[in-house]
Amino acid sequence: MKKLKVTIIGYGGMGSFHAKLIQANPEVEVHGIFDILESRQQAGEADGYSAYVSLEEALDDETVDVILIATPNDVHKEIAVQALEAGKHVICEKPVTLTSEELSEIMHTAKEQGRVFMVHQNRRWDSDFQMVKDLYENRKIGEVFHIESRVQGANGIPGDWRHLKAHGGGMLLDWGVHLLDQLLYMIESPLAKVAADLSYVLGDEVDDGFISYLTFENGVTALVEVGTTNYIQLPRWYIKGTKGSAVIEDWDLKGKIVKQSGIELVAAPKPIKAGQGLTKTMAPPSEDSIIKEKFAKVTTQMDPFYTNFAKVVRGESEPIVKNEEILQLMKIIESFFEAAETGQVVDVREHSYSNSC
Ligand code: NAD
Predict the structure, then answer these.
(1) Which residues of 83-94 are buried (b: 16+ CB within 10 A; e: fewer)?
(2) Any idea what the Cα angle at residue 297 is, between residues 14 and 285, rounded to 5°?
């Protein structure tokens, strides 16, 4: 089968990572690259790709099927629209745009041109998330009613453009888009309410992290937190269900599940000394009453994305990342900014979608 020829616009960290991933996929191949920085043009050539002198030259090349956008966030929209109008299919990095309105414009152009436009929400295939999704969907700790999803670093905001509002910097548009997409993708019920607090510890004009509290219509709640000044990290995931609790500590997928043993007559927990007092309420559960399990690791690959993209282009499959989902995601991100600015809980029901997985 003929491989789709891809040109990567923006050959920085993520652009060059895409090139490696594409090399490993039989459906697609990198044809060329374009970057506004001479040093990155040279890096692309050193990796074996031809570098176009301009975006226009890349778009004029009729042998190219797909434009992959891996530039800073603020220019995603203009490049996507130009590429679609030039008759190319487009893969775009997240956050797809800075506003939902910009995405609507791209979707309109894609429809008009009859071309495929898909957003690279790659973290739907992260192993840690797939483990949580399996736990949630198969009710391994009963009905999940609360989820805490955190990523925390101590290295501040990386790079240059991520510090600047004009380029779409800040952590809500960076990691927030991933963490929220995962929850919206997994939880079968629409999101109802959002409270959010952005942090500006580093003194940048954009947020260096945030804490948010989400309430879904089915009653599931989620705490989503991103930090860039955390010298001690809390677990990546902490999940509570009606029959147990689960934790995934880190990217190495260290985790555990502790759930009810189901034995009817178990010894009551013994009171423990806690500080200057005694407590039975907060004592650990008695050994008979629980079962401890390792959280089974899941290994996933990103192949589904490019393979699915190629199939969508050939008209053989539905997209695994749907633009309507991402439009709702961007509207909810806008509600996060509104919640943080006003200090109010924002009702997002009109923006919510039920997951389609
Ligand atoms: P980066 O700064 O490492 O690379 C961006 C590159 O784009 C730079 O080389 C820059 O010179 C180039 N560039 C800037 N404006 C351009 C233009 N108009 N035309 C062509 N090239 C241009 O940034 P990055 O970390 O690679 O991020 C790029 C995109 O990828 C962002 O949208 C980011 O959110 C996304 N990203 C996604 C993931 C993921 O896991 N999905 C991870 C990292 C970054």
Answers:
(1) bbebebbbbbbb
(2) 125
| Inter-helix orientation angle 323-342/177-186, to 10° | 120
Contact assessment for residue 76 and residue 69, using Cβ atoms and an 8 Å cutoff = yes
Residue percentage of the chain with pLDDT more than 70: 97
Euclidean distance between CA atoms 274 and 224, whole angstroms? 30
CA angle 58, 98, 41 (to 5 degrees): 30
Torsion of CA 49, 52, 56, 60, to 10 degrees: -60
The structure tokens listed for 191 are 């999101």
Q: For residue 39, how far is its CA from the centre of ligand 1 (angstroms)?
A: 14
Query: From atom 43 of ligand 1, which residue's Cα is the shortest distance away?
Result: 14
- Topology of domain 121-235+321-357, per CATH? Dihydrodipicolinate Reductase; domain 2 (3.30.360)
DSSP 213-268: EEEETTS-EEEEEEESS-SSPPPSEEEEETTEEEEE-STT--EEEEEE---SS-PP
Rounded CA-CA distance 305/289 in Å is 43
Q: DSSP of 281-319, one letter per residue?
A: TTSPPPGGGEEEEE-------SHHHHHHHHHHHTTSS--
- pLDDT band per the 50, 70, 90 thresholds, residue 353: low
Average pLDDT over residues 29-37: 97
User: Which fold, 4-120?
Assistant: Rossmann fold (3.40.50)
In this prediction, residue 357 has a pLDDT band, given cuts at 50, 70 and 90, of very low
ipTM above 0.95, yes or no: yes
Ligand 1 pocket list (CB less than 6 A): 9-15, 34-37, 40, 70-73, 75, 93-94, 120, 122, 159, 161, 174
What is d(CA 19, CA 21) in angstroms, rounded to the nearest whole number? 6
The domain limits of the chain are 4-120, 121-235+321-357
Averaged pLDDT for residues 134-151: 97
Ligand 1: centre distance to CA 72 (Å): 4
